[in-house]
């Protein structure tokens, strides 16, 4: 944990860097800049999906040219993210789009942002309290259910499987619980192990290697994430057991989708969970602070895989509902038949 003194110094240093131009303008007597200021805080690119989040965030911000002033930070941990957001609040922001590194750690500073009247858009990992103005996330229960139903069908209702879980955050629990509900309905499905691979290739490889040592037959791996799927594959290859089992990952990594498209037996399918949801959050924050809440002004900028129903877009502040609004990104099954629709060759994820 950061000490109070170190955190204060970090906040002040980042705040000075963020607010420097504004301070100079004020000292020089220049007119205040009327453009809205939006903060964007996301985790560092520790795996493919978060790298994709950064790519989509930068792409969304570029679409507004100099209409908006941006405060963009990637955090290497929960404490650093808190420091980044605190600095943004010191420098002054109108809206904050954030993907929590750790929902519990960030709550205090998000409450402060709320108190200051900052428009809050939470993306992917939900907060402990629904205090954001807008929560954008994929349909995680559907993710778990759709992937599990595909696995059961492909195994014809009987098989020995491994589940790899992600970080201990609500979205992982939503995926896992929905998948278990499906698996538990089929007596022929035996779950051999369900350790956490932490959404990390190296950790997934390590835990999968342990499982391969403990079990002499495995039919399939429900990895729930494409980075963990690739880590599990490394362990399977190293043990010479490639022809024994197949893997179902998730999130639509280009590398995996290409293999699905090409008929790779190790990866017969995938499910979507687009990192472009950060861009959806950014565009809707812009609508709030630049276009006075008219979300139809940004409708043509929303990523196509957001699949946002136009009826969900609201025009005018007077129509905005009380409390946190939720926008759920649908989940789709990717198979060899439709994989070409989900393959983006130049995607960083």
Give me a quick take on this structure:
With 349 residues, the chain is an alpha/beta fold. It has helices at residues 4-27, 48-62, 78-91, 103-115, 140-154, 170-183, 201-214, 226-238, 254-261, 277-290, and strands at 37-43, 69-75, 95-98, 119-123, 134-138, 159-163, 189-193, 220-222, 246-248, 269-271, 325-329, 333-335.
What features would you describe in this structure?
The chain has two domains: 4-132 and 275-329, Rossmann fold (3-Layer(aba) Sandwich), CATH 3.40.50.2300; 140-273 and 337-342, Rossmann fold. The chain has a six-stranded parallel beta sheet with strand order 2-1-3-4-5-11, with helices on both faces. It is an alpha/beta fold. It has helices spanning 4-27, 48-62, 78-91, 103-115, 140-154, 170-183, 201-214, 226-238, 254-261, 277-290, and strands at residues 37-43, 69-75, 95-98, 119-123, 134-138, 159-163, 189-193, 220-222, 246-248, 269-271, 325-329, 333-335. The protein is built from ten helices and twelve strands.
Integer-rounded radius of gyration? 22 Å
CATH superfamily of the largest domain: Response regulator
Mean pLDDT: 89
Q: Could you say what the CATH topology of the largest domain is called?
A: Rossmann fold
Task: Find the structural class using helix and strand composition.
Answer: alpha/beta
Strand order of the largest sheet: 2-1-3-4-5-11
Number of strands: 12
CATH architecture of the largest domain: 3-Layer(aba) Sandwich
Give unreliable regions as ranges: 1-6, 22-26
Main sheet attributes: strand count, strand direction, barrel closure: 6 strands, parallel
Strand portion, in percent? 15-25%
